[in-house]
Amino acid sequence: MKQIYLVDDDDAIRDALSWMLRCQGLAVRCWDSAEAFLADYRLEMRGCLVLDIRMQAMSGTELFDRLRAQGCRLPTIFLTGHGDVPLAVQALKDGAFDFIEKPCDDTQLLERIRQALEREGERQRQEESRLSLEECLASLTGREREVMEGILAGKLNKVIAAELNIAMRTVEVHRARVFEKLGVRSAVELAQVLARGTG
């Protein structure tokens, strides 16, 4: 289940938001400071980060910068006061998902959190697909990879056979193995899979 990670040093706001989100069936974990969240943060965390921009000691933007430096990809929604809008706009330029002014409109916040979770889910699917493709490519032998490159270049089997100095029947066998390992049925599908995976 995707988590919402809520970081706000205002007890009343944190309690109200976490209660509202849980009532919507969402899983929420709370921290009362940026430092506390940073201490618990793990790269494998999945979900959405809801982050107060202005806190004691370390600010929300400082935490965001530190997390990004660690490779964090969690979509981040900043909670801002009116005077913090320029900071929030800069955070958007730096890769934040969105910002919402306090006092938060529950419906708006919920909608943006759901959109952020959808984006995170899609990113995760793409990452899993890319890793799966890398595993498939790693399983190819050197000769299979050479044949695959010939296929992607649009060369006929007999041309690939001549260039690699092997029998055309051998090219056909390697071609079949490449298609099987990558789960495709044609040269066009092969090109599409590789384009999606490396795009």
TrEMBL record:
Single Gene Ontology MF annotation: DNA binding
Keywords: DNA-binding, Phosphoprotein, Transcription, Transcription regulation, Two-component regulatory system
Source taxon at top rank: Bacteria
Coiled coil ranges: none
Family matches, as InterPro entries: CheY-like_superfamily, Sig_transdc_resp-reg_C-effctor, Sig_transdc_resp-reg_receiver, Tscrpt_reg_LuxR_C, WH-like_DNA-bd_sf
Gene Ontology biological process terms in this record: phosphorelay signal transduction system; regulation of DNA-templated transcription
Keyword Transcription tagged: yes
PANTHER family: DNA-BINDING TRANSCRIPTIONAL ACTIVATOR DEVR_DOSR (PTHR44688:SF16)
Protein known as: C4-dicarboxylate transport transcriptional regulatory protein DctR
